[in-house]
Design goal:
Number of domains: 1
Radius of gyration: 38 Å
Structural class: mainly alpha
Oligomer: single chain
Strand content: under 5%
Order of helices and strands: HH
Largest sheet: none
Number of strands: 0
Distance between the termini: 69 Å
Shape: rod-shaped
Length: about 110
């Protein structure tokens, strides 16, 4: 571009014509950069929405697991109470303890 300016300075009439190719190339590059920026912003906003949806689903899944663990704890307590009642009414040797696991199937919920 500087060579075009130097040669064009010798004849003022051709100066504007010599800069047109450089000007159009600069405008074309600027338009490409603007397009890239807009496309990048679109993808960035999409990633933000994806992250937001991910956190919402994580909360839902965590809540469902906590409900499942609470349900499991309730079932274990119910079976333990049933076993105690059965032991009080009938001899404990006739009802095998291996039918009810000593540990719950799921770990306890963190407090």
């Amino acid at each position: 571009m500087s060579s075009t300016i130097e040669t064009s300075l010798s004849s003022k009439s051709s100066m504007s014509y010599g800069l047109w190719p450089s000007r159009s190339k600069s405008l074309r590059c600027s338009a490409e950069i603007l397009t890239t920026i807009l496309r990048s912003a679109k993808y960035f906003n999409g990633l933000l929405r994806l992250e937001e949806d991910y956190h919402k689903n994580c909360k839902i899944i965590t809540r469902c697991w906590e409900e499942l663990i609470d349900c499991n704890d309730g079932a274990v307590v119910h079976f333990q109470d049933s076993l105690k009642e059965h032991d009080q009414n009938i001899s404990a040797r006739t009802f095998p303890r291996s039918l009810i696991p000593l540990q719950p199937a799921f770990p306890r919920r963190r407090a």
